[in-house]
Amino acid sequence: MAVRLITDLPSRNSAPIPWVDVQSNFPWDDPEFSKQMLRKHLDTSHDEASRRPEIMAAQVEWMDSTWFRPRKAKSILDLACGPGLIANSLARKDYTVKGIDIAPASINYGRKIAADWGLPASFIQGDIRQIGYGSGFDAALFNYGLANSFKREDFALILHRIKEALNPGGIVILEMITPEAMAKKVGKTWHTRLAGGLFGRRAYLALKEYFFYPSDITACEIHYVIDLETTRVNEYSICCKGYRDEELAVVLKESGLKKIAEFDSLTGETGIKDSEMRVIVAERPAG
């Protein structure tokens, strides 16, 4: 049953299946929601939306020095770029960068910074499953585990479109959540926002539940957001898909990409115990 009132919560589905019982419905393209999300991106006290500046700077330096400069890259595509923090950092290093994101507030922020600094970066708002990427890129980025938030078929479609946007010999850097990290999130938490927050301007109480299904490495995260004035409940959900080596290899091959390297972080480390991320570098073959 759908949860509409606080009295419905005890009868909610106790084992919802991602993309079956639960559909991803975060309103990423809603102007007001995207403003709240932008605040999280720009909050340098945590890594919940974008990484803290010192971490991001190290990531940009690693990508630049290890992959882009040695390959003489000039143009870079940044998918799900958020407010363009990485895109504009790369543009400051004289790369021509195109960022695409669904959130209007983030795109407007990226554009403003690029315009204020005269940077060679452009930002397009749209759903990366539908919008055109363009072509002629030497490299592409798809970071922060966002690839996991798509169904397998959509992820494969996005990878194919990345391949088509890359020049022969171009690379894509994917930062993905590991299945083990997904499994560790299982559980429920309550939190209160008396001054409002991501899910609304008025005071609310929120229950977050996370479910993981190891058989097909899928998960869903559900937020039951209770308006403290009306006790009505709004339900926000996101689904995730994880990949083990064999399945990821198949998806890359289907998309026309070839894995050439793997790391445990976006700064090039390997051998990190219990790393929450895996970084895949894949190439569009030159032949």
Characterization of the model:
The chain is an alpha/beta fold. The protein has two domains: 6-25 and 181-241, no CATH class; 43-178 and 245-283, Vaccinia Virus protein VP39 (Rossmann fold, 3-Layer(aba) Sandwich). The chain has helices at 31-42, 53-68, 85-91, 104-117, 152-165, 179-184, 245-255, and strands at 75-79, 96-101, 121-125, 137-142, 166-177, 187-193, 204-213, 218-227, 233-241, 258-263, 277-283. The strands form two sheets. It has a seven-stranded mixed beta sheet with strand order 3-2-1-4-5-11-10, with helices on both faces. The protein is globular. The mean pLDDT is 96.
Q: Which CATH class of the largest domain is shown?
A: Alpha Beta
Count of domains: 2
CATH architecture of the largest domain: 3-Layer(aba) Sandwich
Q: Give the strand line-up of the largest sheet.
A: 3-2-1-4-5-11-10
| Poorly predicted ranges | none
Helix proportion of residues, in percent?
25-40%
Structural class: alpha/beta
Q: Spell the H/E element sequence.
A: HHEHEHEEHEHEEEEHEE
CATH homologous superfamily caption of the largest domain: Vaccinia Virus protein VP39
What's the total count of β strands?
11
Q: Tell me the strand percentage band.
A: 25-35%
Task: Return the average pLDDT rounded to an integer.
Answer: 96
> What composes the largest sheet?
7 strands, mixed
Shape: globular
Q: Within the CATH hierarchy, at the fold level, what is the topology of the largest domain?
A: Rossmann fold
Computed over alpha carbons, the radius of gyration is: 19 Å
- Cα distance spanning the termini: 53 Å
Number of helices: 7
